[in-house]
Amino acid sequence: MQVTTKKPVSMPDAFVILFFVMIAAAIASHLIPAGYFQMLPETVNAAGETVKARIDPNSFQLATEQNKAVPLFGEGGQVGFLNYAFEGLVSGDKMGAAIGVIAFILLTGGAFGIIMKTGAVNNGILALIAKTKDIDFLFIPLMFMLFSLGGAVFGMGEEAIAFCIVLLPLMLALGYDAITTVLVTYIATQIGFATSWMNPFSVAIAQGIAGLPLMSGADYRIILWAVFTLFGIIFTMRYAAKIKKDPELSVSFASDQKLRAQQQEQQSSHFGKLDAAILLLFVAGIIWVIWGVVARGYYIPEIATQFFALGIATAILAIAGKRITVNESADAFKQGAAELLPAAMIVGMAKGIVLLLGGDDATEPSILNTLLHHAGSSFDGVSSYLSAWFMLIFQSVFNFFVTSGSGQAALTMPLVAPLADLVGVSRQIAVLAFQLGDGLTNCIVPTSASLIGCLGVVRVDWMLWAKFAWRLQLWLFILASLAILIAVAIGYQ
């Protein structure tokens, strides 16, 4: 008798979810009347700061014209259901969503592909490991801080998988376990990702969509990064000390024992002058980007070009040092861009949702304006504190379905940013709620490819991880909630 095995249920891909959202948007165009708002003019407050024009929440009106329902196929520039992919990808201009953001993602991804291909980042971390392996009390905090910085500065996430492979034997040799390995690498990157002040793949995109200057509000985010990173270090060190004292307390004890039995010495790459030069060049490039944004007001076109230039300079240095060839640098650029192509496409296609709903111009009749009005009305009588906290919960839940930071920003910020105006919460707080909800839930959701990859290479089943990580996730949510409430209290802009 043939035995049939039941295939495990897999989560639908973000593109599949997006397609069904498009269907819902097209149906909504036949059922929901379009409406529009009026804008409050730009003003200057008592402190001399310019307050941007924003939606007047009391000005909503339904359009007098009959709804123009979305057709199946549009022609002559008309937006139809089947046109959402193309129209979304080419919408906007180089200064923002969607075409400018798509180019920004691909160019920046290609540049980082070259930087990672040189091996300088790997060798630098391995050199640091070699220098600290005899002083346990410094090893975990240094590693955690380094990976947290990686998540904050350039959105490090998937790269943690490789470092889990490298660090696992050392962690086991030091008396720790696989869980500690994931904490020091992947969890650290996600804490940095969630509290970043400059990550080009999340906060920069979200701020661009929300109409905020890039890196604005950096001071509060840097404080949050320090607080969350410190919490992560303390949590990890306490857990590691407990496991070192009694390894059998680890949920991964059985698999760790098997790995310890098979453990062999691994050769590490040598950190040389070329690696130091490449890392110094990278630091100089980041300083250039920060200077451009702060002193010159650089935006998406300039910042993308800066990262592209950094990638070229890194390639030249690596080629001159015979680390990589010209063709390998080109392949690295293509690979880096290719890895972010799905995120770039989601950014564009997600714009199609807004187009099917009539566009995101608050002064022009659209279904999106009607939805915003009713969403805002549902918050009547709800304080700004609760409104901001509900935004955090919404982004946390939504991340279960779309774990891409740039994709989630593209899907949610066009709706959440103007909603923030309606409920009396600053757009900066709306972006912060997106960051914290998106980044921190990546620490536990099984739909995160990076998390599953890290758990796979250290031989830990997700269910075992969830058994351990729920307490960590609860603490992170509490900290995130406090961060949001404090942001409202101080009038974070």
In short:
The chain is an all-alpha fold and 493 residues long. The chain is built from 19 helices and six strands.
Layout of secondary structure:
Layout: H1 14-31, E1 35-36, E2 39-40, E3 43-44, E4 50-51, E5 54-55, E6 61-62, H2 84-90, H3 99-117, H4 120-132, H5 136-154, H6 160-173, H7 178-194, H8 203-210, H9 218-245, H10 253-262, H11 273-296, H12 300-320, H13 326-356, H14 367-377, H15 384-398, H16 405-423, H17 427-441, H18 449-457, H19 462-489
Antiparallel strand pairs: 1-6, 2-5, 3-4
Helix pairs in contact: 1-13, 2-13, 3-12, 3-13, 4-5, 4-11, 5-7, 5-9, 6-7, 6-18, 7-9, 7-17, 7-18, 8-16, 8-17, 9-19, 11-12, 13-16, 14-16, 15-16, 15-17, 15-19, 16-17, 17-19
Describe this entry's structure for a reader.
- Helix content is 66%, strand content 2%.
- The protein is mostly helical.
- The strands form 3 sheets. A two-stranded antiparallel ribbon has the order 1-6. Strands 2-5 form a two-stranded antiparallel ribbon. Strands 3-4 form a two-stranded antiparallel sheet.
- The longest helix is centred in the C-terminal third of the chain and has 31 residues, at 326-356.
- It is globular and about 75 Å long.
- Residues 263-268 have low confidence and may be disordered.
Based on the model shown, name its key terms.
globular, two-stranded antiparallel sheet, two-stranded antiparallel ribbon, 19 helices, mainly alpha, single chain, 493 residues, 2% strand
